[in-house]
Description:
Number of domains: 2
Structural class: alpha+beta
Bound molecules: flavin mononucleotide
Helix content: 40-55%
Distance between the termini: 45 Å
Strand content: 5-15%
Shape: globular
Strand order of the largest sheet: 1-2-4-3
Number of helices: 9
Order of helices and strands: HHEHEHEHEHHHH
CATH architecture of the largest domain: 3-Layer(aba) Sandwich
Largest sheet: 4 strands, antiparallel
CATH class of the largest domain: Alpha Beta
Amino acid sequence: MREGDYDNLISIIRQRRSVRKFEPGRSVSRETLAKIAEAGRWAPSGANVQPWDFVVIEDSALRDEVIGVFMRQAERLKEFAQGFPAVYKTYLNNTVAIVIVLGDPRWKVNFPHGVTEASEQEYAENNENIFFSSLGAAIQNIQLAVTACGLTSAWLSGGGEATTSSALSDLLGYPKFMRAYGTIPIGYPAKDIGQRFRRPLDQVIHWNGYEGEKYRTDEQLEFHHQQLRPFTMYRNVEDAGDWDDADERLGPWRDAYCTGVTNPGGKLPG
Ligand SMILES: Cc1cc2nc3c(=O)[nH]c(=O)nc-3n(C[C@H](O)[C@H](O)[C@H](O)COP(=O)(O)O)c2cc1C
């Protein structure tokens, strides 16, 4: 490790953005796409089982068929998950490639298993966590490599829904028991999205034990779910207190979004 590596790393981490509009008429080399997959290959995984495969779609006709699957996925979201701020999937049109991260659940057999029914249940539950966390690590590595290659991406989880994954499996030929847990459209950003809302650092760090003053209450969750979610998802500002309409949007919840204290007094539910 060299001095200065952190600065480079955090700069790429901060630049990685979920971009949903790409420049038309661009292309990318297979060499670059292989570099991106290489970053995924080096992700950590439970018991080092590497429960993933990366399907890289660079053929434009096939890419258009994959886009069709996601257009139908977006329509279903609008119909069956009403209220969720679904984005239109038309932006996928100008992607230069799409990487589908498949998860193979059979490899969970290598994670710890219990010798009694009760212990097996406990271990089996945690094995789900190990499996999904491993896939998340691979997806994140891929996204960071996309950024480091001067491109941009998003993280589409909709491919993991049974209906969508089944349609993708018909198209791409992978076994039905595998799922597309992460679909990563890659392209050149059509506009510069520098920032997104992040909770303040002081709010997410708990030094030497859980700090009750940083607990996000059920009331805050309700406010977030009912009123704030789309703004924290799509506004290009890191600090919600810098929004032009911060007073109106945040009201009495300003401190909970802009400071290290979300729960004055620190009382926790029993
Ligand atoms: C597990 C996971 C699933 C996501 N699923 C979707 C998705 O289906 N569609 C989408 O447009 N963005 C999706 N995103 C992207 C998030 O909306 C995005 O990361 C978040 O709003 C923060 O923005 P940023 O990535 O630009 O920092 C997902 C992100 C994660 C980590």
